[in-house]
Each structure stands twice: as C-alpha cells, then as structure tokens.
Specification:
single chain, 5 strands, alpha/beta, MurR/RpiR family transcriptional regulator, RpiR-like, HTH_RpiR
Length: 276
C-alpha cells in the first residue's frame, strides 16, 4: 500500500484503542486497502479471519454507523481524485457483483420453496405486504404486480400506529400470511412489527438478504453493496419469481383478472400504445 493510503488509514485509526480482533482487521486493511474497499463485510471478515459482527463493531469503534459507511470513507484514500477510468471501473464492478448475485439466486432456485409459498399466498385473503424505508420500494413493486392477480393485497409502507392498525385490521379480516420485505439497513420498527405480527398469529414470509432471518419462510437474495447505496437486482428477481409462482397456483383466477385488467386499461386509455 502506498504511503498516502497508509497515512489516511492511520488518521482514521488514530486515538482508538483496538481489541486484538480489531487490530487484525486494521492490519488486513493496511496491507490490502485497494482490494478491501470493494469487499462486503462478510468478505472482509473472511479475509481477515474474524467474524462479520467483528467487522461491524470495528467500524463503530472508528465512529461510523456501520461497515458500509467505513468503506465509503476508505474509498477516497484509494480512488479520491480518480482518473476517469476508475469511476467507470467502480460502476462496472458493481454491475459485475449484481450479475453474480443474480447467478447465485438462479442456481439456488430448485432449493427455494417458491411453488409451495406461492400456493399459500395465492390462497391467503387478505394478503398484507410490509416494507419500510428502503424496503418500501420493493414491497410496493411486489404489491403492485400481485394486485393484478390477487383480489386483496394490502400494502404497509408507513410505520407508527398506522402500521400496527394495518396489521391488526388485516388479521381481523382473516389474513394468515404476511409478506415482509426486509433489506439492509434493518429498521428497528420492522423487527418490532414482525414481533407484533407473530403475537397476532401471522405466518411470515420474508424477502431479505440473510438466510437466517427470523421468519417461517425466508427467500434470501444478496444485495449489491459496491456503490454508495445498495442495489437490489437479486431481491427484485426473487420477488417477481414469487409473483409468478402465485399466478401459477391459481391459473383460472389469474387469467380472468388479467383479462379484466386489460379491458379496463383499454377502456380508460391508461397506457400509450407506443411512445411518440
């Protein structure tokens, strides 16, 4: 590592008393910073020979909210004032990572309970769909398409008492399943809501990035973490695969609802035939 990189890293570490485990992480960064700025916390932990929570604690000791913030602070030490090609390389690396994430999901499809879960959700009325903060986007997309083939989908993207009311109301109306989209960073309010949902008797299906997420059924797909903010190509693909499984589970209803939707959009001129 160049002296400029080393000096910048030293300034981040200065004044912080590190545990032996944290010193191993610091040592790895000092020797491999050019590579480390593109690693996820799990990958860095593996390379440094520590646990992933140790990487998170290391970042917090240095004053960051978590590892993504530390990695973002480290990148200018290597890339700062970059020639044009470096920014392009960063974007290319992020896209390459998403391609690997999608490939990983594709290779795991036979082991995922998509068919069984799709059948359960297709039969569940009403069907609440939860997603807060960054997860609201994917939850909204999932709910939008699911409404085309399912008679009663209830989207929950606002927290506070409105979220509790929505969970309670859907349960009273007969809801048995809750679809929860939970992507990093994980809001405390979501975890509290899922705990409350469990008390109400919900069965929870989670679309998330961690296989060990506390839910009855977990559909996990990695997020892209090479850029300032995460990208969600693989979780989106998995969510759309679940919509497809729901459609396949009730083919007659799916066909009838899609035909009705097409008639409605034709009558109301909802969509352009083609772009001008």
């Amino acid at each position: 590592m160049t002296g400029a990189y080393h000096g910048g890293l030293d300034r981040l570490l200065d004044g912080h008393r590190l545990s032996p485990v944290q010193r191993r992480i610091a040592h790895y960064l000092s020797e491999h910073l050019e590579e480390a700025i593109f690693l996820s916390s799990v990958e860095l932990a593996d390379r440094a020979g520590v646990s992933q929570p140790s990487v998170t604690r290391f970042a917090m000791v240095l004053g960051f909210a978590g590892y993504p913030e530390l990695r973002q602070a480290l990148r200018p030490l290597v890339l700062g004032g970059p020639p044009e090609g470096q920014q392009e390389s960063l974007i290319k690396g992020a896209i390459d990572r998403e391609i690997r994430n999608l490939t990983a999901v594709r290779d795991r499809l036979p082991s995922l309970p998509l068919k069984e879960l799709g059948a359960s959700l297709a039969a569940a009325e009403p069907l609440p769909v939860l997603g807060l903060r960054v997860s609201a986007g994917l939850a909204t997309t999932f709910a939008y398409y699911t409404r085309r083939i399912h008679p009663d989908v209830r989207l929950l993207t606002h927290g506070g008492s409105e979220l509790i009311d929505g969970l309670h109301s859907a349960r009273r109306a007969g809801a048995e399943w809750l679809v929860a989209v939970v992507l990093p960073r994980y809001p405390v309010e979501v975890m509290n809501a899922l705990e409350y949902a469990g008390k109400l008797g919900y069965r929870v299906a989670a679309i998330c990035d961690r296989p060990g997420f506390p839910a009855e059924v977990v559909l996990d797909a990695p997020v892209g973490d090479r850029l300032v903010f995460d990208s969600h190509a693989a979780p989106l693909a998995l969510a759309m695969a679940l919509v497809e499984a729901m459609a396949d589970a009730a083919p007659l209803r799916t066909q009838a609802r899609l035909e009705e939707y097409e008639r409605m959009t034709d009558e109301t001129g909802t969509f352009l035939g083609e772009l001008p």
